[in-house]
Amino acid sequence: MRNNRAQDLRKSFIDSLEEDIRDFLINEAELHTYDDLTKVNPVTPSTVLKCLQARYSAKVFYTHAGCTLVALNPFQPIPHLYSLDVMREYHAAPQPQEFKPHIFIVAEEAYRNVQGQVEPMNQSLVVSGESGAGKTWTSRCLMKYYATVAASSQKCQDTVEKIERRVLGSNPIMEAFGNACTLRNSNSSRFGKYIQLQLNGSQLLVGASVQTYLLEKTRVAFQAPNERNFHIFYQMMKGATEKQRLEWMLPLDQDFAWLPHAEKTLEGKYCTSRMLACVDYCSLSLSSFCAGFLQKTADLLQVPLDELQSCLTVRTLHAGKQNVLKPCSQSECSVRRDCLAKVIYAQLFDWLVTFINNSMCADSSMWCNFIGLLDVYGFECFLLNNLEQLCINYANEKLQQHFVAHYLKAQQEEYVTEGLQWSFIRYQDNQGCLDLIEGSPSSIFSLLNEDCRLNRASDAKQFCVRLQKELSHNASISWDKFSKQPHFTVAHYADKVSYQIEGMMEKNKDPVPPELISLLQNSQDSLLHSLFADGDHESEGLRGHSKVVTVVSKFRNSLESLMKILHSTTPHYTRCIKPNPDCRPLTFKREEVIAQLEACGIVETINISAAGFPIRIPYGNFLQRYGLITNTRLTAQMNTPLSPTGPEMSNQAVLGSAVEDVLNVVLKRRAPNSTLSPDDNNNMVHCGRTKVFLTHSLLEMLEVHRDRVRSQKAFCIQCCWRRYQNRLRNLKRQAATRLQAGVRSWLVRREIRKWHKAASVIQTKWRRWRVWMDALAEAELDDAEDFIENEASSALPKLDRLLKERGSVQLSSIQEPVMVRGWPIGLAMTSAPSITVSLTATGFQRIMSMMACLKIPFRNGEYKVKTNQFDQGVASIRAQPRGSIKVHLQRSPLLYADMHPVHKTDVVTGFNQILLERP
Fold first, then answer.
1. What is the rounded CA–CA span in Å between residue 764 and residue 666?
2. Of all helices (H) and strands (E), which one includes residue 84?
3. Pfam families of this UniProt entry (predicted)?
4. Is residue 183 part of a domain?
C-alpha cells in the first residue's frame, strides 16, 4: 500500500516536473506561428497536438511535418484559400517553401520535380487519412491547381482548356456514382482512384487517365442503418423533370427500399439513365403485390417479362449433360435480385470510367511524364465490419507500409549505408499486420480464397475455427471468446477493428448466375447490350471452380500494380486529419486527433525530418546541376557507379572532392565575414560515399547561387552576342554603302552619258540654226523694192476685199494662228511653219512691208526669209508694222535644250526662253 502511494507521488512529481519543463521550453503564445512541426521543442505527441490545436484555432489548417504536410479539415468552405490568385502566387514564387504551408506547395514541388530541377522523375501525390478527413477535397484542389498552372502557354491554350474542363468535369460525375453518405462522412468515397495527369515535354497538361479500385457495389442492395445509397440515385429522384419521370417510370411519391433518407438533398445534377431507375425497381420487384413493378423493370431493361421472372425465381442445375430447373426460395430470389442490381451498376460504373478515359486520355506519343493523384477510401471502423472494410483497411495498410518503407525505414538505412553518424529512431512497422492479411502460406486472404474454391456451402463458425488454428501465432489477430457471432479482430496501424465472418465468403465469391448474364446480353437496349457483350467472364466461377477469381484476389492484384507505380515515382505525402467525429466546423477534439497522429506516424516523421537530411542527390547529378558554380565539368569516366573495389572508388573520391569544393564556395558566400565551424556545416550537409545529403535551406542556397552564376554567364553570353551583332550590323552597313556607291556611280554615269548625248544634239541643232540665221541675215532686204526685185518670180498671195477692209490676210498654207506683238524676229523664225498673221493696222503698204520682212513661205516647211538682224533678234524697224501685232506660235521642237531638263509640258525651255527673256 505504501509502495503504491510512493509510486503515485513519484509519478505526479514527474508529471509536474515535465509540465514545468514544457512550460519553460514551449511558448504557447507563439505556437500558431510554427509552420513546421520540426521547430516544436521538444517533439512529443502532446507538443505537436498543442501546436496543431493553436493553428486550427487561428484558422491555419496546413502545417509541415518534415517531408509530409498535415491538413486539418475545417468542415466549412474557405473560398479565398483556394482562389486562382493564390494558385498563381504559389506557382510564380521562386521559392514556394518560403510561403505559408499549403497544399499548393506540395503540388508545385511535384510539378517542378517533373520539370527536372534536380532529378527529373514522375511524381505521385499520396493523400491519406481516415474517412471524412478531407482526402477527396484535397485531391480536387490538386487537380484544379495543375489544370490552372499547365494552361500558362497560349500556344496550346485551347487544348489545355479542353482537357482541364474534362478532368475537372469528371470529378462530380465520378463522385455521384462512387460516393455515398456514411456514418463518418457525408461524402465518403466508396471506391479508390488513381488519376494520372499526363504532361508533354513542355510540362503542359495534354491528357489524363483514371484507374479505379474496388467499387463497393454491395451498397446498391444494402446500406447500414443511418447510411445512404450512392448519390446518383438521390440526384436522379430530386433532379428529374416531369418528362424524365414518365420516361423512367418514377412516381413522385414512391419510396424505394434501397433509397433510405431520400428527403435529404444534394447539390448538383448529374447524368442518369434508365438503368438507374431499373436498379431502384429491383428493390420492389419480388413482393407479392408488386407485379406491376416487375413489368416496369422488364420494360426499363427492354427484356421479356417472362424471361426476367424466370431468371429471378428459377435456377438451372447442370447434371451431366442435362439441365434441371429448380425453383428458388425467397431468400435465393432476393440474392438473385440483388445480384442483378449490383452487376448492372458495376458494369455501368466501369463503362463510365472507360468513357471518361477515352474522352481525355492522350496518345502515348504525346506525353512523356505524369503526376499521379491517389485518392483512396480512408480507414474505417464501424459497428458491423465485413469484407468491404477489410479490403479498405488493407489498402490503407499498404499505403502506410509504403510510407514507412520509403521514408522512415529506407531513409535511416541509407544514412547508415552512406556513412552518416545516425542512431535509429523507432517507428511503428505494420509488416506483421500485412503478413496476417496477405502473407503466405497462411493468411486471411489465402484462407478465404481456399474456402471459396471448395464446392460446398459456407460455414462462418467453421471458418472462424480454421482462422484460430492457422493464424493464432500472429500477434495482430485476436478473438472475443464471449461473442456469440463468429468474428476476428485485427490490430491495424490505426486501430483495432472487429470483422464479422457471416456473409464474408459469399461476398468474396461474388457469383453471378449465367441466366442473368444471358438475359442482359439479349436486351434490346443498346447500352445494356454493349455492357454485357463480353460478359462471359462473369460466370467463370460457375463453369470451373478451380478457376474462380475472387474479390480479394482481384483487389490484391490491382493494389500490387498500384504499389509498383508508386515505387517507380517520387512520392509526396499529405496526411489529412479529422478534427472531430461529428464533422462540426472549427471543432477540435484532442483525443480524436492524437489517435490519428500516432496511427500515421507523424511524431516519428517529425523526429527523422528534424534530425536528418530530406534531400539526397548522387554525386554525378549534383555536379551536373551545380558544377558550374566552380566550373567543374563532369566527364563520362567520372560518372561511373560505385563498386567495392576497383578504379571506380577513385572516381567517387574525385567526385566527392568536386562536390566539397562546390559546397565550400556556397557556404563561404553564406557567411563571408565569419568562419563556420564543422558542426554548423554538418547540420546542413553531409557527403556520403555516393551521395550528398542536404537540408532544404542549403538546397535553396545552392539554387540561389546557381541562378547568380547562370545570370553572370548569361550576361557574358549576351555581351558577346551583342558585340557579334554590332559587328555584323557594321559589316552589313559597310557592304550596303559600297553597293549604294556603286549603284549611284552607275546611275550618274548613265545620266552623264544621256546629258552628253543631249548636249551633242543641242550643239548640232544650235550650229545648224546659227548657220541658217547667218544665211538669213545676209539675204535680208532693206526696202520693199529690193524685196520685189529679188523675189519677182515669186507669186504673192492675192488679197481680197476683206483684207483691205479688215487689214488681215489669210494664207491657205497656214493652219494655226500666231499672235505677233513686236516680238523678236528670231522667235518668229523658230515658230511653227503654219502662221496666221492678224494686223490691226490697215493699208496695203504696211501689209506688204510686214510680209516682206517676214518673207512668209508659200508652202509648208519652207523658210526663205533671211535676215541680218540676228544679233539684235528683231526685224528691221522700217519693215515693222505701226500697229499692235498678235502672233500665235506653236511649240518649239527644242523643248529640252538645256542642261537640266524640266519634265513639264507647260514650260518654255531652251533657246526660246533665252529669246523671250531678252529686252
1. 92
2. helix 84-92
3. IQ (PF00612), Myosin_head (PF00063)
4. no
What is the predicted pLDDT for the residue at 784? 42
Number of domains in the chain: 4
> What residues have CB less than 8 Å from 819, skipping those under 6 apart?
838, 885, 886, 887, 888, 889
Q: Looking at this protein, which amino acid is placed at residue 115?
A: Q
Beta-carbon count within 10 A of 505 CB: 20
pLDDT tens for 127-182 read 988 888 888 889 889 988 988 887 655 555 566 567 777 877 888 888 888 888 88
Name residues whose C-beta falls within 8 Å of residue 28's C-beta, 6 or more positions apart in sequence. 50, 54
Please identify, among 482, 511, 540, the residue that sits at the C-terminal boundary of a domain.
511
User: Are both 401 and 507 inside the same structural domain?
Assistant: yes
328 and 425, same structural domain? no
Whether 132 has a binding-site annotation, put simply, is yes
Nearest to 356 by CA among 518, 122, 486, 172: 172
Total length of the chain: 919
* 3-state SS, residue 561: helix
443 close to 435: Cβ distance less than 8 angstroms = yes
Whether 134 has a binding-site annotation, put simply, is yes
User: Cα(82)–Cα(84) distance, rounded to whole angstroms?
Assistant: 7
Residue 92 burial class via C-beta count within 10 angstroms: exposed 0-12, middle 13-18, buried 19 and up = exposed
Q: Cα dihedral sign for 143, 145, 150, 151? A: positive
Nearest to 448 by CA among 401, 391, 396: 391
Domain contains 816: yes
Whole-number pLDDT of residue 761? 92
Q: Is the pLDDT of residue 814 over 50?
A: no
The annotation status of 136 as a binding-site residue, yes or no, is yes
Inter-residue contact 457 to 509 (CB < 8 Å): no
For 696, the 3-state DSSP assignment is helix
| Cell 541509407 belongs to residue | 414
- Going by the DSSP 8-state scheme, the letter that residue 808 receives in this structure is B
Count the helices and strands in the chain (H runs, E runs): 33, 19
Whether the CB-CB separation of 452 and 628 falls below 8 Å is answered with no
Of 816, 888, 806, nearest to 841 by C-alpha is 806
CATH number of the domain at 318, please.
1.20.120.720
- pLDDT digit string, tens, across residues 891-912: 555 444 444 444 454 555 555 5
State how far the Cα of 631 lies from the Cα of 624, in Å rounded to an integer: 11
pLDDT single digits (tens) 704-754? 888 888 899 899 999 999 999 999 999 999 999 999 999 999 999 999 999
**Domain range holding 625?**
615-701
Question: Is 248 buried (19+), middle (13-18) or exposed (0-12) by CB count in 10 A?
Answer: buried
Q: What is the CATH number of the domain that holds 500?
A: 1.20.58.530
Residue 827 has pLDDT above 90, yes or no: no
Burial 456-471 (b: 16+ CB within 10 A, else e): eebebeebbeebeeeb
What is the identity of the amino acid at 388? E
Helix then strand then coil, in percent of the chain rounded to 5, is 50, 10, 35
129 is in an annotated binding site: yes
Q: Is 133 annotated as a binding residue?
A: yes
Residues 686 and 695: their CA atoms lie apart, in Å, by 9
| Structure-block grid coordinates of residue 493 | 496501424
User: Hey, which residues does 718 pair with through a beta bridge?
Assistant: none
Question: Which residues does residue 197 pair with via DSSP β-bridges, in sequence order?
Answer: 208, 371
Nearest to 785 by CA among 912, 863, 879: 879
Q: pLDDT band for position 22 (50/70/90)?
A: low
- For residue 306, what are the contacts with CB-CB under 8 A and spacing of at least 6? none
- pLDDT band at residue 831, thresholds of 50, 70 and 90? very low
Per DSSP, the residues of 281-337 read: HTTTTTSTT-HHHHHHHHHHHTS-HHHHHHHHHEEEEEETTEEEEEEPPHHHHHHHH
DSSP E strands, 145-223? 179-180, 188-189, 192-199, 205-213
